[in-house]
Design goal:
Mean pLDDT: 93
Number of helices: 23
Number of strands: 14
Number of domains: 3
Shape: globular
Helix content: 40-55%
Largest sheet: 5 strands, parallel
CATH superfamily of the largest domain: P-loop containing nucleotide triphosphate hydrolases
Strand content: 15-25%
Strand order of the largest sheet: 2-3-4-1-5
Length: about 450
C-alpha cells in the first residue's frame, strides 16, 4: 500500500486551519500522487472538487456548472459565467455560518489556457462573498507552473498564498511496498520506477522483478509499454527531435558535442530542446562541486533525470523492432538481464549521496560540512564529496553496484580520481552491495581513514 504523505498533508491542514482566505498552487509530475493527497486532505471537509480536462472556456463552465447543479447548488443557466459559478458556490450557506469552504481544481492550467482572465476572477470573486475559504489549484505541468504561470496571470499572482511541489516518494517508501524483494531488487526497481507511485501500482509486489518487467512493461499490450512515449508527448511538440536527443542520452552520449555528432542538429537547436526537457524534469545538467583540479572535471554533462524515461530510452526505444518480434521473456534475456545492475548504478549512487547527507546532518562525519556535491572527472566519478567551511577538511564516498563485491581496481580508480581532483579527504567511504575483496578489507584494517559499508549496514 502506498504510504500517506504525512508532511504534505500536515502543511495543507495547517493552511486550512488558518483564518481567512487562501489560494494554494499544488503541483508535481503526473502520477506523483497529487490527487491521492488532495482527496486525503478533503476527508471530513466541505469540498468541491473539479477536474478540468482539455476544452474551451465555455465547455469548462458548462461542466463545472453541471457538477455543481448535481450537488445541489443553484445555477441560472447551463452556461453561467465564472462570476455566477464562483459566486454561487462560495456564497451558498454563508449566512448559516458553515465551516470553511474548499474549492479544488485539478489540472487548472487548462482553465488558464482557455481563459486568460480566469485567475483574476478566481482571486477576486470568492473574496467578495465569502470570509472563510481555501482554494487549491493542482497541475501536472511542472514547467508551466515554475516558468510561465506568474507571467501568464499577471497581477493575479499576488493572490497566491503559497506553492507546494509534490516530489517523488523516497526509496524507503518503495522498499515498504516491495517488502518481499531483496535489497538489490529494490534498488533496481527504484532505478526504473523512481519515486512515482502512479508507476508502482503497475508492478505486483507478489511477482518477481523479471515477471513484472515482462508482464507489465515489455508486453506490447500492457499499460507501461508506451509510457515513455506518453511522458514525452504529453509535454512537447516535434516529438522526432526530442526522441533523437533522448535516444542519444539513453545511449550515454551525455555532452552537447556527442549529441550533435549523433543527431546533426545544430548545437543551438540542441541547447534549446535540452532546456525544454529540463523544464519538464526529463533531463538534468550535471554540475560538479568546485575543486582545485577543475581541469580534470567533465563539463557540460546532461543526463535523463526521469528514471522511467531513462529505462525506456535505454532498452525499449532503440529495440522496438526486436521487441515486436520477440517474446517479452526472450527480449528480457537478450537485452535487459545482463545490463540491469549497470543501469541501476546511478540510482544506487544517488542513494549513497542521500545517506551521506543524512550523516552530515546528524554530525556523524569527521568534518562540519559546509559544501557537498558530486565530482564528475575525466578519471572517474566521486559519488559524494564534502568540504568544511575553510576547505581544510574533506570527506569522499564511492559506490559500486555493478558487482556484488567491490574489487580492488575500483578502489584504485577512486584514488586516481581524488588525485586528479586534487582532494585529500580525511575519510573515504566505500559502498558495495555485499562486500569487498580481501585486498580492500586488509587495507581498511591498516588505514583508519578508510570506511567500508555494505548494503546490509545502512539499507532497510
Amino acid at each position: 500500500m502506498i504510504p500517506l504523505r504525512e508532511n504534505e498533508l500536515q502543511y495543507l491542514n495547517q493552511i486550512y486551519a488558518g483564518q481567512g482566505q487562501s489560494l494554494l498552487i499544488l503541483y508535481g509530475q503526473k502520477g506523483i500522487g497529487k490527487t491521492r493527497l488532495i482527496l486525503d486532505f478533503a476527508k471530513g471537509k466541505e469540498v468541491f472538487y473539479f477536474h478540468a480536462g482539455e476544452g474551451s472556456d465555455r465547455q469548462h463552465r458548462y461542466l463545472m456548472a453541471a457538477q455543481l447543479t448535481s450537488e445541489g447548488f443553484s445555477m441560472e443557466s447551463d452556461y453561467p459565467s465564472w462570476e455566477e459559478i464562483l459566486g454561487g458556490y462560495f456564497s451558498a450557506g454563508q449566512e448559516g455560518g458553515m465551516e470553511k469552504k474548499v474549492l479544488i481544481i485539478d489540472e487548472f492550467d487548462s482553465l488558464i489556457r482557455s481563459d486568460s482572465d480566469f485567475m483574476e476572477m478566481l482571486s477576486t470573486i470568492p473574496a467578495r462573498v465569502c470570509m472563510q475559504y481555501m482554494i487549491v489549484l493542482c497541475s501536472s505541468e511542472v514547467g508551466f507552473v515554475e516558468n510561465q504561470l506568474v507571467s501568464k496571470i499577471g497581477k493575479a499572482a499576488f493572490s497566491i498564498s503559497g506553492f507546494l511541489k509534490v516530489r517523488p516518494l523516497s526509496f524507503d517508501a518503495l522498499s515498504g511496498v516491495f517488502s518481499n524483494y531483496s535489497k538489490v531488487e529494490k534498488v533496481i526497481t527504484y532505478s526504473i520506477l523512481g519515486g512515482v507511485p502512479g508507476l508502482w501500482k503497475y508492478f505486483d509486489p507478489a511477482l518477481s522483478l523479471k515477471q513484472n518487467l515482462t508482464t507489465h512493461l515489455l508486453d506490447p499490450g500492457c499499460s507501461l509499454y508506451d509510457e515513455g512515449s506518453r511522458i514525452v508527448m504529453d509535454h512537447v511538440r516535434e516529438g522526432g527531435v526530442y526522441y533523437s536527443i533522448l535516444s542519444a542520452l539513453g545511449e550515454g552520449r551525455d555532452k552537447l558535442g556527442d549529441i550533435y555528432d549523433h543527431t546533426e542538429f545544430s548545437r543551438a537547436k540542441i541547447s534549446v530542446y535540452l532546456k525544454n526537457l529540463m523544464e519538464i524534469e526529463a533531463v538534468e545538467k550535471v554540475f560538479s562541486i568546485d575543486v582545485r583540479g577543475r581541469d580534470t572535471q567533465r563539463k557540460g554533462i546532461y543526463r535523463i533525470s526521469n528514471p522511467f524515461l531513462r529505462f525506456w530510452f535505454r532498452f525499449l526505444y532503440p529495440h522496438m523492432s526486436q521487441l515486436a518480434l520477440k517474446s517479452p521473456d526472450a527480449f528480457y534475456e537478450q537485452y535487459i538481464k545482463g545490463e540491469l545492475e549497470r543501469f541501476a548504478a546511478p540510482a544506487f549512487s544517488q542513494l549513497v549521496f542521500e545517506y551521506m547527507q543524512s550523516l552530515a546532518l546528524a554530525d556523524e562525519l569527521d568534518i562540519d560540512v559546509e559544501e557537498e556535491g558530486v565530482f564528475d572527472g575525466k578519471d572517474g566519478y566521486i559519488d559524494y564529496l564534502a568540504f568544511d567551511e575553510h576547505r581544510m577538511g574533506a570527506v569522499a564516498a564511492f559506490a559500486c553496484f555493478e558487482m556484488p563485491y567491490m574489487p580492488y581496481e575500483v578502489y584504485e580508480r577512486a584514488l586516481l580520481t581524488l588525485a586528479g581532483a586534487k582532494v585529500k579527504p580525511d575519510r573515504i567511504y566505500l559502498f558495495a552491495r555485499d562486500g569487498f575483496d580481501e585486498k580492500i578489507s586488509l587495507e581498511a584494517k591498516m588505514k583508519d581513514e578508510l570506511e567500508l559499508i555494505c548494503m546490509e549496514d545502512w539499507m532497510e
